[in-house]
Amino acid sequence: MTSPYRAELRCAGGCDGAYGIDSAVYRCQRCGELLEVVHDLAALAECSATGWKALFEARYKRAPAPYGSGVWGKKEWVAPGIRDEHIVSMDEGGTTLIHARRFGAEIGLDNLWVKQCGHSHTGSFKDLGMTVLVSAVKQMIADGRPVRALGCASTGDTSAALAGYAAAAGIPAIVVLPRGQVTPAQLVQPLANGARVLALDTDFDGCMAIVARLATDEGVYLANSMNSLRLEGQKTVSVEIAQQFDWEPPDVVVVPAGNLGNVAAVTAGFEMMQTLGLTTRIPRLVAAQAEAANPLYLAYRNGWQFAPVTARPTHASAIRIGNPVSVRKAMRALQRCGGSVEQASEKELSDAAMRADRTGLYACPHTGVALAAVRKLALRGEIRRHERVVVLSTASALKFTDFKVAAAANAPIELPNDYDAVRAALDSAVPA
Fold first, then answer.
1. Which residue among 85, 159, 254, 323 is least enclosed by CB atoms within 10 Å?
2. What is the pLDDT of residues 329-349, one digit of tens each?
3. pLDDT at 1 over 60
4. Among residues 256, 295, 245, which one has the least CA distance to residue 374?
5. For domain 84-432, which CATH number applies: 3.40.50.720, 3.40.50.1100, 3.40.640.10, 3.30.420.40?
6. Which of 213, 209, 217, 211 has the alpha carbon at shortest distance from 196?
7. Could you give the CA distance from residue 99 to residue 97 in angstroms, rounded to a whole number?
């Protein structure tokens, strides 16, 4: 059945450039700006806010596949033109939202929450966007469009998501990584899923330049976040957060920020809900960067005047990006929502992750960046005690075991097989 809803690609910079969703176009061919997916909001508004809420609630984690997915349960808002037989879904989304009471209390916040996006199929929020992109390409191929392979540059999580979804779709995947800058746990994911993995002697920005050329010259379909279809899936995390709070958005959302597509996507999700009447306001967004890779922070401090930097080594390897592709989109999004940018040093992010772990979380280094940013903003009074704050935990900490071992202020106590020795250890740790 043909959907009554429509979407197209348009220039994010405001010129008249417009393209079909099934076009292998990533920048406006008139002005060079990135594109964005624009929906027919008038058609969507013909269903009431109450109707949309009821539909999303009825599908969420219970509807027949693929509509139980946190992404495809919002299909009309995401990719209405994708035919169901081409949807490649791993039941992504539907991730936990944890009330981080103890960590919040330690930093002076009563209402701190962590959205565990790493509880997804390949272990990161990238699944939300990749299901949309791969489904779109599967349909393009079925419709006779020439796509040689799917390709991405990655610091780990994008490659895992692309390889997993491409394998499920039966589409070849090419992954370009900076050699020695991806954890073994992340590297093994695309290898296991059969992707062709190329490790280059460069950083992420160098890998991105190579992949962009492959997309232009070699018939490789680009799967990085400069592709607007990725952001359509990623924006559903905002809808899911509102849904989990009974359609009451938080006051502040904090996002680890690297290539900056997620900053634009999260804002877009909240804006769409407000426009269609499901919610009444948009949260303030905070983009959290590692001090070693902080071009957006520097731009924020300099009146939004952006200049790329050379990213230095950081534990938060997935956001070690000095020239983020989606920077213009992200800056516009932050300005629209009254957002801000904060940074965290290596010590600050490690300390925040360790403190969070001691309160029952298990935080990856990128979540550590976001938690450190929250702590700094709370200490300065820029986030108030009573405000509801959501931190996006972008990936599973199980991918970063070396970081967790190095940051842990705890170690096993080796003892003989002797009850008295065990009892002595207990007494020294837990007073009677």
1. 85
2. 999 999 999 999 999 999 999
3. no
4. 256
5. 3.40.50.1100
6. 211
7. 7
Residue 22 pLDDT level (bands cut at 50, 70, 90): confident
* Run of H or E residues at 210: helix 204-217
CA distance 330 to 338: 12
**How many C-beta neighbours within 10 Å does residue 346 have?**
19
Enclosing H/E stretch for 429: helix 419-429
Q: Label the pairing between strands 35-39 and 284-290.
A: unpaired
Helix 236-244 with 49-59: angle, nearest 10 deg: 90
Positive or negative: CA dihedral 305, 309, 315, 319: positive
Burial of 419 (0-12, 13-18, 19+ CB in 10 A): exposed
Q: Where are the domains of the chain?
A: 84-432
Q: How far apart are CA 100 and CA 363, in angstroms?
A: 12
Q: pTM here? A: 0.93
H-type alpha helices, 245-398 = 261-275, 295-301, 327-336, 346-357, 365-379
What is the C-alpha to C-alpha distance for residues 214 and 291, in angstroms, rounded to an integer? 31
- Tell me 82's DSSP state: S
Q: Let me know: does 7 contact 132? Beta carbons within 8 Å.
A: no
Helix axes 126-142, 157-169, angle to 10 degrees: 30
Residue of 88, 84, 98, 83 lying closest to 127 (CA atoms): 88
